[in-house]
Amino acid sequence: MSSKTDNIPKRDLISRINFLLQAGMLINRNCPPSLLPLSSLYVREAKSCAQKSLVKIDRSIKRIVCKNCNCYLIAGYTARTRVKTRRGTYFIVTCNICSHVKKAKRKVI
Predict the structure, then answer these.
(1) DSSP states of the chain as a string?
(2) Which residues does UniProt assign to the signal peptide (predicted)?
(3) What whole-number distance in Å separates Cα of residue 101 and Cα of residue 53?
(4) 103: burial class by Cβ within 10 Å (0-12, 13-18, 19+)?
(5) What percentage of residues in the chain have a pLDDT greater than 70?
(6) What is the pTM of this model?
(7) In which residue ranges of the chain is pLDDT below 70?
(8) How far, in Å, CA of 10 to CA of 22, rounded?
């Protein structure tokens, strides 16, 4: 009998994408800034692997990665976060490496 975990299609690709994203995050947090290009290389490789194999990357991971330079957006280190209130509340995240701006509308609780 096969269990539910054995029936996952493209299991090896999903595990490779997961490994590359975790390695990129680990390098980004624990290593000197000179290794940031290596972190973005891992993220870029994971994105291209997911795109070629038609595997979707989780939305929460897409939110913390810069679309321009593929660097992890860590507040105070590689990103600057601002909150604007015009016709709603917006979070504005600016990448410190490439100055790319990401805006997201949020509900106020």
Answers:
(1) ---GGGG-TTHHHHHHHHHHHHHHHHHHHHS-GGGHHHHHHHHHHHHHHHHHTT-PPPHHHHHTB-TTT--B--BTTTEEEEEEESSSEEEEEEETTT--EEEEEE---
(2) none
(3) 29
(4) exposed
(5) 92
(6) 0.81
(7) 1-6, 107-109
(8) 18
